[in-house]
Design brief:
By secondary structure, the chain is mainly alpha-helical. Helices cover 67% and strands 0% of the residues.
Length: 213
C-alpha cells in the first residue's frame, strides 16, 4: 500500500491494518514513521516555536504511529521494530517537540491559534506506548532512552492532558520497562528525585525500583 493511499483507504481496512498488522505492513509503517520524524524535525528546526509540527504530523502520521504502537505490543513485530534503533530515538524526539509546544502554551508564549495540532488526540499516548513497548526486556533500547535523556522527558510529561487522558499511566508502564534489570536507569530516577525534579507522589508509584538511594 502506498502512502498516498492511506487517506483514501476504507475505514474497515485501516482498522484491520491497526488491529491485525502483518510483517510487510509493520516494515512499511517503520519506514513511513522515520520519514514523518525527519519532516517534523526539519520543520521545527526552521522555526523557533515549532508551530508547524502539527502540520508535519498530519492525520497520516498519527495513524502510522498508532499502528507501530499496536504492533510493538506483539513480540514478533516488536523484535523487528527494535532492530531499527532510530524508531525509539525519533519517538522521543517527536515527543519532546510536542511537549515543548505544550509548555509554551502553558506559559502563554504561544496560543492554540498559532499552531496546528488538530487531530492529534492520543498522539502522545501512542509515542509513549511505543517507547515503553520497545524498552520491554530490551537492554539496547533501555540504554538508548537514557543516553538521549528520554527518562527526564517522560517524567516531565506527567501532566494532566485532555488530549491524552491515559498519558501518566503509559509513562508509568514505560518507566517500569526501562528500569527492569537496568540499574543505570533506576539510578537516573533516584538522581532526579534527589534533585527535586520528579513529583514524589509519582515516584511512589514506581514500586518496581530496586536500587537504593
Amino acid at each position: 500500500m502506498l502512502k498516498e493511499e492511506l487517506k483514501d483507504t476504507d475505514k474497515n481496512d485501516l482498522l484491520e491494518l491497526n488491529t491485525k498488522p502483518s510483517l510487510p505492513s509493520v516494515q512499511f509503517f517503520i519506514d513511513e514513521f522515520l520519514k514523518l520524524s525527519k519532516e517534523v524535525f526539519r520543520v521545527t528546526s526552521s522555526t523557533s516555536s515549532g508551530s508547524n509540527a502539527g502540520d508535519a504530523v498530519e492525520k497520516c502520521g498519527v495513524f502510522v504511529t498508532q499502528c507501530l504502537a499496536t504492533a510493538s505490543s506483539i513480540k514478533r513485530f516488536r523484535t523487528v521494530i527494535q532492530e531499527r534503533s532510530d524508531v525509539i530515538k525519533d519517538s522521543l524526539g517527536i515527543l519532546y517537540t510536542l511537549h515543548q509546544i505544550d509548555k509554551n502554551i502553558r506559559r502563554k508564549e504561544m496560543t492554540l491559534e498559532q499552531i496546528s495540532i488538530e487531530n492529534l488526540d492520543g498522539f502522545k499516548n501512542d509515542l509513549v506506548q511505543l517507547v515503553g513497548n520497545l524498552s520491554y526486556r530490551h537492554r539496547a533500547s533501555q540504554d538508548i532512552v537514557r543516553e538521549v535523556d528520554g527518562i527526564p522527558l517522560l517524567l516531565d510529561c506527567c501532566n494532566p492532558d485532555l488530549k491524552n487522558p491515559f498519558l501518566t499511566q503509559w509513562i508509568i508502564v514505560a518507566i517500569r520497562n526501562l528500569c527492569e534489570n537496568n540499574n543505570e536507569n533506576q539510578s537516573v530516577i533516584y538522581q532526579l528525585k534527589d534533585q527535586g525534579a520528579v513529583d514524589l507522589s509519582l515516584v511512589e508509584q514506581f514500586k518496581f525500583l530496586s536500587v537504593g538511594n
